[in-house]
Please model this.
Amino acid sequence: MSRRAGLWIAFVFVHLIVAVLGFVLPNLPMGDVYLVYEPWARSAASGTAIMGVTEPWVYPQLALAPMMLALGIAWVAGYTVAWALVVIVANALAFALLVGRGRSTGRTLAAAFWLAFILLLGPVGMYRLDGVTVSLALAGSLWLVGRPLLAAILLSVATWMKVWPAALLAAAVIAVRRRLVVLGGALIVSAVTVALVASAGGAAHVLGFVEGQTGRGLQLEAPVTAWHLWQAVAGVDGAFVYYDSDILTFQVTGANVDAVIAVMTPLLALAVLAIAALGAVKAGRGAGFAVLFPPLALALVLAFIVFNKVGSPQFLAWIIAPVALGLVIDRRRWRWPAVGALAAALLTQFVYPLLYDRLIVADAFAAGVLTLRNVLLIALLVWAIVRVARVPGRLRRPAPSLT
Model:
């Protein structure tokens, strides 16, 4: 059996296992699909309310596209299964691009890493909007050198579904030589999206997702909540976990929590700008795409996670694209970060859904697993930043083709 055939067989089995786990694991890991996505899609289809157009929304407007697509094929076996099919098909297209003819060891290792990550992260990676954006982000990253306009369009579409791929776009603008093409692609997608939303009467809600994020509290799983979470574990007065029914998530509160909430968004912006500035300096000194983009992209994506007051478990899927690309280009240097990413994925599945019923009551063991996962993410961020800082001014060998 060929290497390529083996990867595709593994792809089928991994996705079937994870799809089924969504129905059998505790704490409703696929709950967002039928409790949130389906009502939004049906409301838009009926014209009752179109999220992001007639109503404020926490997501950018193109997030509605995969939700509507799943609704269109819900006749197959219901909306939840339809959603899983949408994610699996998107993954299959990106997987085909990644594997290619199956002759590259780096691509084979990256594909195996992606499959292992999907399995270790579990159903939360499939039954969330992030599952669609990861495929777009990976395909866009692979095409940045050979087809920068198409890559920028894919990354921009993903960004208008879920903001995080903006980190990859920023890294691309810094590291790709044809950065004006990347900027042009991003502007085209953004202009078309804004024009469509405005023409539908949603101009007032075009950037509503930004306001929706800045007004949030400290989500339970975010790294910044560790202090207040452990205070809740210790039974300190005023520190506890609670459910926010407006945004449908568990958050943590305690002494001086408002000050922490207020500082996190500016801190996130400063971290992203500092990392981007470091990357820009390296690019200005002649650093090539192959050595600069993967660690810069990983650092920016991890900054979006580590300095974020929102910490949903599916966020971990964001690191798939930069790590996979790193393995394609330089598997020796990226093998240990890949192992760390896989360990973080496994710990995340323990956090949610396996231990979540214990975490929301401030159980010490569950909090310890979450804290270990967050420490690992911080360590990966430090590694990525150091790697960017150590990027040489000019390539010593030609950059490998990713097309």
